């Protein structure tokens, strides 16, 4: 029998893809499936971005690029960060990566090993915990509580840091809850981190341009005291409806960028060349489609929250960011994963059970409103009929 290293036995997965596979299988059998499970915009990538990739191919950009990404794209990322966060950054510290998960993998791999601890949000993106466990580090959940509007608590987060803590992972706006942590809480956290100068921070800001009701996205990049240990994760997937292009970027501190570059060389050599030109067009071209998408998500958000709160046994806080609702289903009498499975198999509505996002996710399910208003309303009707029977 072949034996792999023990770390591979600890790798988890993102169950949203398992649900997607099952939903696709059922659709292939002729079932009418409404997918509110996968976190993927239902919009097309804007035409000018697609055309930029086509042009790059026609212009002969068929070869390798630098492992860190083409220089114009890294410069455009720095310009975009300046425009959005009013912070000057060095394009030399930007790394273009094939999707946001890669930055998580690299950061956790750099800091995780047996005998260390890494803090991560719970409920949170499942890859955080999966990769922490792979490295042998101890995963320490930072509770993300409904009563706090799914924002993290600075004091609770700081209380979990000890001399074994190597990395703190933060996510706002957040998956799966849609929570957005306010500036006051972030400032309190940054101030408290002054007492823990050896703890690195990875800030997952992939939903940074999706906030609602006047809620401000506060980037950790804005705090100078953190910049020498901050890994910023962002990208194109959500903002520009480019999930399948596999395009992300990270801003690394000076002390880590060369380590990240070496990992890139060893793992994937470089990101797909035409896709990088598409990413350049996305950042430097018109942003009207971004505004349109966010406005449409806002409208769908109101529809889904109102509909969820009208369902028997369900209550739902209004999410302030991303494109997810995370309703409380405890009064239905169902366990979360069992309910999510039953909704898919019996009603054709794909959702994700809260425990797939962490131990504190029991009692909740995640619904993505990156689907049409028509489908959202139809899904809510099906869920209502199911719960009433």
From TrEMBL:
<keyword id="KW-0808">Transferase</keyword>
<dbReference type="GO" id="GO:0006520">
    <property type="term" value="P:amino acid metabolic process"/>
</dbReference>
<dbReference type="InterPro" id="IPR015421">
    <property type="entry name" value="PyrdxlP-dep_Trfase_major"/>
</dbReference>
<dbReference type="InterPro" id="IPR015422">
    <property type="entry name" value="PyrdxlP-dep_Trfase_small"/>
</dbReference>
<feature type="domain" description="Aminotransferase class I/classII large">
    <location>
        <begin position="32"/>
        <end position="383"/>
    </location>
</feature>
<keyword id="KW-0663">Pyridoxal phosphate</keyword>
<dbReference type="Pfam" id="PF00155">
    <property type="entry name" value="Aminotran_1_2"/>
</dbReference>
<dbReference type="GO" id="GO:0004069">
    <property type="term" value="F:L-aspartate:2-oxoglutarate aminotransferase activity"/>
</dbReference>
<dbReference type="GO" id="GO:0030170">
    <property type="term" value="F:pyridoxal phosphate binding"/>
</dbReference>
<dbReference type="InterPro" id="IPR015424">
    <property type="entry name" value="PyrdxlP-dep_Trfase"/>
</dbReference>
<dbReference type="InterPro" id="IPR004839">
    <property type="entry name" value="Aminotransferase_I/II_large"/>
</dbReference>
<dbReference type="InterPro" id="IPR050596">
    <property type="entry name" value="AspAT/PAT-like"/>
</dbReference>
<comment type="similarity">
    <text>Belongs to the class-I pyridoxal-phosphate-dependent aminotransferase family.</text>
</comment>
<keyword id="KW-0032">Aminotransferase</keyword>
<protein>
    <recommendedName>
        <fullName>aspartate transaminase</fullName>
        <ecNumber>2.6.1.1</ecNumber>
    </recommendedName>
</protein>
């Amino acid at each position: 029998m072949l034996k792999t290293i023990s770390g591979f036995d600890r790798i988890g997965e993102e169950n949203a893809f398992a649900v997607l596979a099952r939903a696709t299988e059922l659709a292939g059998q002729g079932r009418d499936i409404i997918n509110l499970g996968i976190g993927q915009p239902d919009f097309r990538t804007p035409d000018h971005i697609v055309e930029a990739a086509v042009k790059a191919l026609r212009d002969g950009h068929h070869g390798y690029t630098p492992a860190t990404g083409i220089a114009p794209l890294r410069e455009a990322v720095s310009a975009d960060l300046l425009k959005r966060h009013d912070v000057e950054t060095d394009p030399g510290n930007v790394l273009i990566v094939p999707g946001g998960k890669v930055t998580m993998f690299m950061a956790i791999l750099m800091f995780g090993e047996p005998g260390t601890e890494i803090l991560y949000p719970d409920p949170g993106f499942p890859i955080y915990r999966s990769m922490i466990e792979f490295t042998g580090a101890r995963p320490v959940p930072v509770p993300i509580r409904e009563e706090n509007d799914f924002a993290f608590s600075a004091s609770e987060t700081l209380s979990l840091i000890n001399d074994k803590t190597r990395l703190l992972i933060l996510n706002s706006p957040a998956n799966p809850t849609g929570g957005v942590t306010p500036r006051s809480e972030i400032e309190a956290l940054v101030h408290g981190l002054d007492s823990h100068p050896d703890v690195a921070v990875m800030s997952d800001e992939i939903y940074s341009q999706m906030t609602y009701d006047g809620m401000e996205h506060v980037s950790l990049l804005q705090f100078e005291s953190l910049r020498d240990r901050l890994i910023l994760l962002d990208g194109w997937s959500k903002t520009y409806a480019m999930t399948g292009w596999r395009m992300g970027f990270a801003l690394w501190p000076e002390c880590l960028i060369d380590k990240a570059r070496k990992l890139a060389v060893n793992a994937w050599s470089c990101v797909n060349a035409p896709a990088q030109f598409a990413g350049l067009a996305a950042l430097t071209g018109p942003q009207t489609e971004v505004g349109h998408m966010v406005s449409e998500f806002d409208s769908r958000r109101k529809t889904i929250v109102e509909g969820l709160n009208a369902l028997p046994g369900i209550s739902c806080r209004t999410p302030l960011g991303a494109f997810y609702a995370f309703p409380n289903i405890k009064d239905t009498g169902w366990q979360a994963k069992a309910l999510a499975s039953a909704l898919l198999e019996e009603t054709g509505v794909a959702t994700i059970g809260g425990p797939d996002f962490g131990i504190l996710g029991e009692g909740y399910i995640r619904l993505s409103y990156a689907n049409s208003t028509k489908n959202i309303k139809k899904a809510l009707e099906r869920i209502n009929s199911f719960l009433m029977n």
